[in-house]
Structures are given as C-alpha cells and as structure tokens.
Amino acid sequence: xxxxxxDVLIIxxxxxxxxxxxxxxxxxxxxxxxxxxxxxxxxxRAHITNQRTMExxxxxxxxxEDEAYLFAAHQxxxxxxxxxxxxxxxxxxxxxxWGNHPMSKAEHLLASPxxxxxxxxxxxxxxxxxxxxxxxxxxxxxTEYLRHEQDxxxxxxxxxxRLTGKxxxxxSRYLVGxxxxxxxxxxxxxxxFEGQMGVGGSMNIIFKADLSKxxxxxxxxxxWVVQPGADVGGIGMGLVxxxxxxxxxxxxxxxxxxxPAPEVxxxxxxxxxxxxxxxxxxxxxxxSVSTWTVNNMYATNMQAGRVFIMGDAAHRHxxxxxxxxxxxxxxxxxxxxKMAAVxxxxxxxxxxxxxxEERAPVAKQIVTRANQSIGEFGPIFEALGLTESTDPEVMQxxxxxxxxxxxxxxxxxxxxxxxxxxxxxxxDAHGVEMNQRYKSSAVVTDGQMEPAFELDAExxxxxxxxxxxxxPHAWVYDHDGGKxxxxxxxGQGRFTILTGINGEPWAAAAEAVGKAMGxxxxxxxxxxxxxxxxxxxxxARAREVNEAGCVLVRPDQxxxxxxxxxxxxxxxxxxxxxxxxxxxxxxxxxxAAQ
Length: 594
Description:
With 594 residues, this protein is an alpha+beta fold.
C-alpha cells in the first residue's frame, strides 16, 4: 500500500508544475506537488511574461494578477532593446520591443485586458506555488522523484525523502512530469523527442551594481554588447539583462560547447562584468554563477497512458523570444481543465489524449522559433563586418568603418538598421505569443474552414472565434458602468456560451444540458437592457456569428464550437456538441437530455 494517495501527483514546482497545481486546486481536484530542492527558484531565469500568460494569472484570480504586476518591471521599462560596444561605450543601434513601439502597443491594447511585463522566476514561481498551496495543494519539498509504475488504475511513484533518506510511495490517478529539461519522468516513459540537446554553451553571471547612469535614459530588459575577439567564437556577443531596474543584473556569456564547462570564478565573473559594462572602476557584487546548454529539442508525444509531461520537460530551447515559462504555464492551462473534468467524471478519459494533439505542435513551434532567433543575429554580425575576418583588430576596424562619410559606409549603416529592425521576430513577435489555434477532438468545427492569416502570423495577433482559437478580447459593460473583458466572462473552470438577444434560447438549452450532463455551462446574453451591453460594438464585430448564434468557450478560454444562427433544436444541438467535446457517449448524453 502506498504511503500517500492523491488524484494527481506533480513532479516539479517550477512555472509549469506550480501553475498546474494552482489550477487543479482552483478546480477542486486533489493534488500533490513535490520538489527535490528545499525551496523554489533561487535565480531569476525566466522573466518575460506575455499577455497570454497574464490572462492565465487573471483567470486564477484578480489577486494573483495584481500581485504579479506588483513585483514586475512594467512594459514601458522593457522596450529599448540596445545594441552597443559596452553599456558605457558607443551605441550601435536600438529597437522598440515587447509591445513598446506605438503600433505594436496598439495591437497589445486591442488584444487583451492584460499587459506583458518582466517578472523574474524568483517572483513568479513563489506566486504560483503560494496560490496552489493556499487553495489545497499538498506540497513536499526536499522530495526527489526516483521512478514510477503505471497500470490501468493509476500510477505508483517512488520518491526519496532527502531529509530522512527514506523512500516513500505515492499513488495517484495521474502523474505530471514538470521536472525540467533533464526530465526523468519523460526518460522513464521513453517519450519520443526530435532535435538535439547541447548545441551551445552559456554561462549566467548574476550581480548587483547601480548602472542607472548607463541605462535609465534608454530603459530595456536586454542590452546586447558586441566586443570582437572577446570569446572563443570571435564575435564576442554578450548579453546584459536587467533583473531589477537598475541595480540587479544577469550577464549571459558563451563558452565552447565542445569543451568542458568552465569554472566561473568571482575574478573571471568580475572581469566579464567590467568589460561588458565598459567601466573598470565598478565593484559588482557577484551573487551567483552557473553554466547551461542551449537546446533544440521538443517532445512529439507529451503523454503515455496516465503520465504527462509539460514545461521544459517537453520543450527544451534557449530563452530567445521569452517563450519558456509562458509556454509552460499555458501547457498547464490546457491540461488542467481536462484532467479536472475526467477526475470529476464529467468527461471520458480519452479527452486527455487531446493534450498532446494541441500542445505538441506548440512545443515544436516555440523550440523552432527560439533557435531560429539565435541565427537571426547573423545579419547584424555581417552588417558590422564581423564575419569577414577572425582577427579582432580587423573586426573592430570594420565596425568603425560604419562611421565614415562615404557610399560604402552609408550602405553599411543601412544594413545595420535593417538587421536590427529584423530582430522584431524575436523581440516583438506578438503573433507567436497569441495566435495558438488548437486542432483536436476537443473542439468541434462542423467543417468550418480555418480563416487564413492576413498578416504575418509570427508578428501580429489575428483574433477569430473559429473553434480552437482563443476567444477574442472585447470590452462589454454592466449597468453600473463597470467594464468586463470577454475573457473575464469565460474560463474559471467552466464552459461558457456568449450570445445575443435573439439567441436567448441558448441559455435555456445550456441550463438543461448542463444539468443533464452534470457540467456547469454559464451563459451571457449581451445586448441592450441585458446584464451586459456591447456599447462600442466591439464584441459584435469580433464574434463572427449572427446575434442569434452563439460561441461556446472552453474553460481554458479557447473556442470549443460556434453556431452562426439559432439552431432548430438548441438543446439537442448543444447536447451533441458537449458530448463530442467531453468524449462522452453521444447517445447516452442525448437520452439524458430528453
């Protein structure tokens, strides 16, 4: 007999594991989260927090969203992405990023009620973990996953209590491996991956120093420093990342992946800091050093029976585009409601198969995009003349040549501007963050064609209510003057129907079908003299169905199904759709609804 029993056991309490635990506890599902370490994240690794992730935090509760903003560096401090020879030295160029260009900012404001921000993992992880534990998650730190066995009834997991040295067993219906890029859960299940680990080597140097005189006038998260000949690769690109404005920093510096990882002493770290800052007089306080590898690998199957993986366990990539923790948290948002529905008996177990169907393509996309972004520094190096020679003096002379008053230098300056502007695919890729459209048996399209992307799908979010897409954001108003995003009307662990006055019969149908199937379906009728009014007509323009139609939204805020008009028998139609979405026997569900 197992020492402990729970419905869901989660290995790892990083952004993926803690958000999974928080969501399951919010949905009323018993769960346990274990962490092999004695505490949570002690370095600020992940930090870019995009709008879609903030929508997940908002769905967990306004208090969770507000606390994230409280500790985050706000969007306006993120955006002057700077390329320079050192922080104190000459600037090569810069670009407005992370939604700070006026046109991009407008798209952000139109896309979501939330704002992207910079929230280091040392703040995000405790917020999610606290939310999970305060809502019912049983957590065990200093508890190391060793192995598991699964059968038709559940999973038995063996862990090591690192305080006592004793093993303990935990039985659960499901096991979630959120145990990072070297996931033992994925390894034990022999889950299939594509790509390669260890394609590059990097080190992190975390330090404290007041650098406000070099950066406050051009606030940014990232300062890219080019110093030819400064490293084994010759080009000498280093990154100075703001952790807290403007006195806590993280430097990323490369090393030769074909050699053993270097020993990063305080003396070496201090030299790197001084060189990249360009001020030999500063006395940085080195707080942490570590080495890591650049990976290019993703899972093609994120589950095996009752065992699932998420976060870095499933998609292993460099921090380019700031997609890591965001994708991890969104993995959890996808799986949590499905697992809750199955545990509660509301859905057939095959619903869980749609997790891989929906999230594995996202894993592939973001790993590919992140690694591609590294390669897109190439045009900058070429424009600066850094690829023409390996001699640092020649490389430096080629950089200086951009300042000359001649036609060749003018051409070089234009090439540098274009190459830096092209980095919007890394630093302002709003579409990559927001355009995820799911294709699986957890959505019902009824043969409706997916709308084509009219703009660049990586750069621009393009809203649609096509089933599988995230519900578009629009403001609607109550009679007291309060405004509500359409995203606030949906989610929170429930299915939701949005309709107009002529579609009011959908509300009665939803009540009947929900009662018959034991599933909560909330309905919002939007229109004059109803509880919610579309004063600006934003929702009418975004819904893509007639007023008598409806949009059915899943608990993760993705559209499950839509009807252009009022069905002849709304109750029968909704029964058909819900039975399909929840993988329940359609005949049994139909009989129950009669």
